[in-house]
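Here is one chain, start to finish.
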Amino acid sequence: MKKLLTLLVVLSMALILPAFNIAYAQANDSIENTGLPVVGAATQDGKTITYSIMSVEDAKNDSTNPLAVSLIEANEELNQALVNGKMDYAKIDTSLEETLSSIISKIDESYSAEDFIPKYLFELSVEDGILNENTNRVSFTFENVVSKGKMITVIHKDLSTNKWKVVPEEHTVVKGNNLEVEFSSLCPVAFLEVSLKAAPKPNILTYSLIGVSALLIIFASILTFKKKKK
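Its structure:
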C-alpha cells in the first residue's frame, strides 16, 4: 500500500510541475527582430518628410561620411559598455545610467539600468526640416519593434554635446507591436530593450493536468483512510 501511495504522489508531482513550465514558456513568447527597424511613417507637422536610415554595417562601408563615423563611434561605445550580457552605462555617461535606472525602477525596483540591452542601433537623418528641443520635432513610426513581455526605451546621441539622451516617455507611444517616437535630434539612435518578468499563466492544459493530479491525491487519501479503518 505504501508503495502505491508513493507512486501516486510522485505521478501527481510529475504532472503538475511540467504544467507550470509550459505556462511559463507561453507567457514569454516574443517577436524576434534583426537588422534595421522598419519605418512605417515619417512626418513633421503632419506632413510626410524625406529621411534616411543607416545600419552599422552600412556605416563601416562608408567611413568618409561624418554620419557614418558618428554611428561607428556610438557602436563602439555601446559594445565597450557590454560586460557579460549586462550593460554598464556608467562607462558611457553616469547621467544616462541614472536616467535609465529611474525609468525601469518605476516598473520594478529589482531592475536596474544594466538590464537595458541594445536591440537596434542606427543612424537616422532627415533631408528636410529643422529640429529643435521644443518645436519642429519629427515623428517616426517603427513597425513590429515591440515584443510581448518586453519594454523599449529610445536613446539618441546629441552630436552638439556628444551626449546620449533618453527620449522622454511622453514622446514615445506603443501601439500594438509598433512604436511611435518624436525626436528633437536624430543621429545616432538606439532602442534599448528590457525583458519584463511575467507570472506564469495557466492554460487549459495546465488546469487539466492539475485536475488529474488532484484526483490522484484524493484517491490516495481514500485508500489511506480505508486502510486505517481496517
